[in-house]
């Protein structure tokens, strides 16, 4: 692990803020794609998303056409062809029982153009520096409940959200953090309406060399440790072998999908629905109503209620062998963060709250947010999951 920028507290920023350790989100025209001007008028409530079809390349701009690195079945052959594919996704419903997001996992905006100084030799198409993995397509079909129903007792509190922490990294069930009875820790909280996966965690870890040899997990955004993200806070999975066939990396988000939000064309004046969580509740990007019970008071940037632990709190939590801050500033690891309902944020431990939304302007509903501040994308859900859920199933993702 290399040294990173100095320690800082993760705070919310507006859409055109510089992404720390990366650059402005609209660099290289990554967000300069044609907005979907029909989005505001076509989808008025959640049932309308049962016939959602993402815009094709003619609407979304050139960024929706991707070069797919395809190698022959003989993996020893170095020659390759690079066909192009267009992003494609849809949302359908089975009555009022389930909602299914389907597509080819390709984003409907420019992707994989990286700011960071990545591995040498990967500075041109289709790899680009910072992430030496070519984008790949795959068939996606993910089903979630049509309407969310909360798993147990959920106390809204005065600000519309539960003040109880959901999960604790110091206690695990297998390799998964132990969660409270009314929520579920999830490795894969959603596939957005454009069929691209949301993945909070990363593969980057630091294994301590003393004590119990704790595995410290690097957070999935370029705030403290460069994990090679593009302007939409996303990158491609590593290339891998499947028998004699080379499989190419699938694109996934670790933070707010800036390109997707821009293409939807709602701007900074209202809330933007980007998908549905694995428990069926809707997910919005960055902005929520200032007055959660009224759609008439404008919007503000939603901030989570996670804050950095102090050194004393880390020790008390059992993390006595954390690497030095010179190597990894506070905030680098998942274990550095703790949910604190008194930290001045707007959301519960799963980045959600009760309130009205553009799709439910008079009746408060429970909904989640993707935020600029940690956890960026949620790591838990408060709703019931389908029996055969894919929320923590690596084989299905």
Could you give a short description of this structure?
The chain is mainly beta. 5% of the residues lie in helices and 27% in strands.
Please outline the helices and strands.
Elements: H1 39-42, E1 52-53, H2 57-60, E2 65-67, E3 84-86, E4 89-94, E5 98-103, E6 135-136, E7 140-145, E8 167-173, E9 176-179, E10 184-185, E11 190-192, E12 197-198, E13 205-207, E14 215-217, E15 234-236, E16 240-242, E17 245-247, E18 249-253, H3 258-264, E19 273-277, E20 282-285, E21 287-289, E22 299-301, E23 306-308, H4 311-316, E24 337-339, E25 352-357, E26 360-370, E27 380-381
Parallel strand pairs: 6-18, 12-18, 20-26
Antiparallel strand pairs: 1-4, 2-3, 4-5, 5-7, 8-9, 10-27, 11-12, 11-19, 13-14, 15-18, 16-17, 19-20, 21-22, 23-24, 25-26
In words, what does this structure look like?
By secondary structure, the protein is mainly beta. It has one domain. Helix content is 5%, strand content 27%. It has 4 helices and 27 strands. Strands 6, 11, 12, 15, 18, 19, 20, 25 and 26 form a 9-stranded mixed sheet that branches. The chain has a 4-stranded antiparallel sheet with strand order 1-4-5-7, with no helix packed on it. The chain has a two-stranded antiparallel sheet with strand order 2-3. Strand 16 (240-242) and strand 17 form a beta hairpin. The longest helix is centred in the middle third of the chain and has 7 residues, at 258-264.
- What is the total domain count? 1
Q: If you compute it from the alpha carbons, what radius of gyration comes out, rounded to the nearest whole angstrom?
A: 20 Å
Q: What value does the average pLDDT take?
A: 77
Instruction: Pick out the low-confidence regions.
Output: 1-34, 57-63, 69-81, 115-122
Structural class per helix/strand content?
mainly beta
Number of helices: 4
Proportion of helical residues: under 10%
Overall number of strands = 27
